[in-house]
Amino acid sequence: MVAWADPYQRQSRRLQHHLTVEAASMPVMHVAALHGLSWLTVRRAEERAIERWEATRPALPLRHVGVDEKWLGRRHDLEHKFVTVVSNLETGEPVWIGRGRSEKALRRWLESLSREQKATVKLFAMDLHRPFWNAVDNTRGLEHAPIVHDPFHIMKLAGKMVDELRREVFFRAGPELRAVGKGRRWLLLRAWERVSAEDRVALRELLGHNRTLARGYQIKEELREVVLAAPIALRWSRGSTASFDARVATSPARSAGCTTP
User: Fold this and answer.
1) How many alpha carbons fall within 13 Å on the CB side of residue 135?
2) Is the dihedral of CA 205, 206, 212, 213 positive or negative?
3) Which of 20, 59, 126, 168 shows a CA-CA span of 20 to 30 A to 187?
4) What are phi and psi of 81, to 5 degrees?
5) 86, 65 in Cβ contact below 8 A?
6) By C-alpha distance, which of 146, 137, 147, 144 is closest to 119?
């Protein structure tokens, strides 16, 4: 037995570590060809190095949990087209991968957590996929953990609501208003700062036809400012709304001619 190698291993710890680092940036088959080794040898060396690294890591509590799905593509014969990925948002590491993206799939992992592990969870971050939401809500011991969503999916939902309001105002109101709203969907969904000066004139004219639609557009743009604002911009003093009022007064929605009813 030697100090620089594990028992029953034909590679030194240093070589196993070197192969593992290279396998992190290229396929295992390429690493094997580079060093004249078999794929299985490189794979076993990688497993041993990761086991040693995992054994020396401090045990960190799982506090911020990320839940997302990954599409596996078309070139496979698996019954499930998606996998559910649970990750630690503080370290960026996946902690569990399950087949499918159903409520049952996520519940399998949630129910495997101990009472102590559930108590350390501070929040769940996920998209608007309802089965994931239901899985967290229906798991006992996680009532204290809120569910948060990323800015992209929040604005996607807000845009969907504004587009539905556009359909109600123009397309379901008769042929005259239908001609006004036809082909203007992109104008309502695009962020105000990305709208050209010429298109802003058309946007003001479009919003001038209906006060409810103008109010909906204003809410969407103010919501965009909130979810995309830097954290320091949200640190207003408690009990004082002066900075907030000033920010809303100069918001893009105000510039578009929207007024609060």
Assistant:
1) 24
2) negative
3) 126
4) -95, -10
5) yes
6) 144
In this prediction, residue 2 carries a pLDDT of 63
pLDDT, tens digit, 9 for 90 and up, residues 189-240: 888 888 888 888 988 888 888 888 889 999 999 988 888 775 544 444 334 4
What is the mean predicted confidence (pLDDT) over 57-82? 87
Give residue 73's region: left, alpha or beta (phi > 0; psi -120 to 50). left
3-class secondary structure, 230: coil
The kind and range of the H/E element at 84 are strand 82-88
Instruction: Provide the residue type at 33 as one letter.
Output: A
For the sheet with 123-125, list strands across it.
93-99, 82-88, 64-71, 123-125, 147-148
Q: Which domains does the chain have, with CATH numbers?
A: 13-56 (no CATH), 64-148 (3.30.420.10), 151-255 (no CATH)
